[in-house]
Design brief:
With 320 residues, the chain is mainly α. Helix content is 46%, strand content 8%. The protein is built from 10 helices and 9 strands. α1 runs antiparallel to α6 and α6 packs antiparallel against α9. The radius of gyration is 27 Å and the shape is globular.
């Protein structure tokens, strides 16, 4: 555990002698991580990647001010007694307050730049999950936000934590009775669950899952619908399997005149040859692009020569 990495030299103006804490360093790294991940996502959809730093700036302002403001409201009697001490203290940050104000400011910035809030929420979700994991490493390094006492092999003792995992702190601050067997074995500083690391692992898994599905060409809100559509599609003779295409927008059987829709964005295969009839397909609004599809025909593969996508309403792609 390293609550303080180093102290600033005394000759540095304003900051001379001030400690550089591990929590502060990892909070900075968390915001930078979010910025670079979001920058890559904005570049992927054709937006200016430098807009990511506008959103990060709003998140920094909202996160810090909201977390500090929420903490002061929760400890209002102490704020009345020592307002300057509460406002200028290095500690005292509540996650919920930071999340609420940062979310409000980021949404305001999204609307100011005339971007779609649902689309940006999809882009920001992986960045937020990974940034949260990085920030929680700082909580572990400083010995903050630990869990209940445990004799498990996962238990960690924080003798210099914020606060330390002493029997007195656990019982008086949190109302938890410490098992006498733990006290007998470990003394007054007992091991606790490192919940910070648990959250690092969970958030990293969430990031990996979101990153895996981010480029499926459709909204994450329709992921289950598309999977169901692919499952039904495999019942068609010669239909597209999941290995051939991510989603089929409209299946057109020119011989029987039967048509059925599957909401999505990309088309990589069809049961029947559509080249002679000019199939009409559906494209989700807000999708970055509709790729030029290849249709699996009864004979040789047919490349669709022309495709257009309209901007108004539920957009359509017309092939001919």
């Amino acid at each position: 555990m390293y609550p303080v990495f180093f102290e600033m030299p005394n000759w540095v103006p304003f900051l001379g002698g001030q400690p550089i804490t591990s929590f502060g360093v990892f909070m900075l790294l968390a915001f930078l991580t979010a910025g670079y991940v979001l920058r890559a996502e904005l570049r992927r959809i054709g937006e200016d990647p430098d807009k990511a730093w506008d959103f990060v700036f709003m998140a920094v302002i909202g996160g810090i001010l909201g977390a500090k403001g929420y903490y002061m409201l929760l400890n209002f009697p102490r704020l009345v007694e020592d307002p300057m001490g509460m406002i200028l203290s290095r500690g005292g940050l509540v996650w919920y307050g930071g999340f609420l104000l940062a979310t409000a400011l980021v949404i305001w910035e999204i609307r100011r730049q005339k971007l779609a809030v649902p689309t940006m929420a999809d882009l920001m979700a992986p960045a937020l999950a990974l940034a949260y994991a990085v920030g929680r490493v700082g909580c572990f390094m400083v010995g903050d936000d630990w869990g209940r006492p445990t004799d498990s092999f996962l238990g960690v003792r924080f003798p210099q934590g914020s606060p330390a995992t002493t029997v007195q702190n656990i019982e008086q601050m949190f109302g938890i009775t410490v098992d006498p067997a733990l006290i007998e074995e470990y003394g007054q500083v007992v091991p606790v669950h490192p919940t910070q690391l648990y959250e690092v692992g969970i958030s990293t898994l969430i990031f990996c899952a979101l990153w895996r599905i981010r480029d499926h060409g459709h909204s994450k809100r329709l992921a289950l619908h598309d999977l169901a559509g692919l499952r039904r599609l495999r019942a068609f003779p010669g239909g597209v399997s999941p290995g051939e295409g991510r989603s089929v927008l409209r299946h057109s059987d020119r011989r029987s005149g039967h048509q059925s829709r599957h909401r999505g964005v990309r088309v990589l295969g069809c049961h029947e040859d559509p080249c002679g009839g000019g199939a009409r397909l559906t494209c989700l609004p807000g999708s970055p692009s509709c790729t030029r599809p290849t249709f699996s025909a009864a004979g040789p593969t047919c490349l669709v020569p022309r495709m257009h996508c309209w901007n108004s309403g539920p957009r359509s792609i017309r092939t001919s």
